[in-house]
Amino acid sequence: MRKAFSVIAGILLVAAVPPGLAAGPSVNESGLHAAAARNDAAAIRDLLSAGADIDARDGRGRTALLVATHGNRIDAAQALIEAGADVNARDDIHDSPYLYAGARGHLEILTMTLAHGADLKSINRFGGTALIPASERGHVETVRTLIEAGVDVDHVNDLGWTALLEAIILGDGGSRHQRIVDLLLAAKANVDLADREGVTPLQHARNRGYEAIEKRLVAAGAR
């Protein structure tokens, strides 16, 4: 009987705890993620002033800044970054605000992360730098920005691909990817760095019928 009473009392005690005060983020921390999602910079500043943990994690390991970055919520991201949010804090799948902004072409947030300590050598869950998915997805200005910031243009990811290879293999051969190839070549990307099967960027371009990219590679001395 005493044991049953203890269990019931425990259940009632848990039920009496207000939402947000149980195990997990505090009310302020949960509010910070919500404010970031709705791009409410004023609420973010109020919550931080009240003592919210700026780098607290949600159920997926995301900070409020990463939530803001997911939605390209520029005002929220700016408020958080200027308050000292960690631009390199990774979630459960190894995304950080810097890496995600680069991969998705969220240029304004990316620029802010670069100005506040972004780790240019950090890699995503595929072993790639921010430059590689940016090149694949055709984010021309993002690629330019990352190159100018000093990201290694010849970094090889876990698939055995560089930014140049991904721009060709996963790109569409159109004007955006042609411009990205131009940027990578101007940055002295290795035009003959092949994939794990020994297929070079030039061979991939030819196999896909990307004549404009093929011409660029040949002009750069590709074999």
From TrEMBL:
The keyword Signal applies. PROSITE patterns: ANK_REP_REGION, ANK_REPEAT. Residues 1-22 form the signal peptide. Coiled coil: none annotated. Pfam families: Ank_2 (PF12796). Keywords: ANK repeat, Signal. This is Uncharacterized protein. It comes from Plasticicumulans lactativorans.
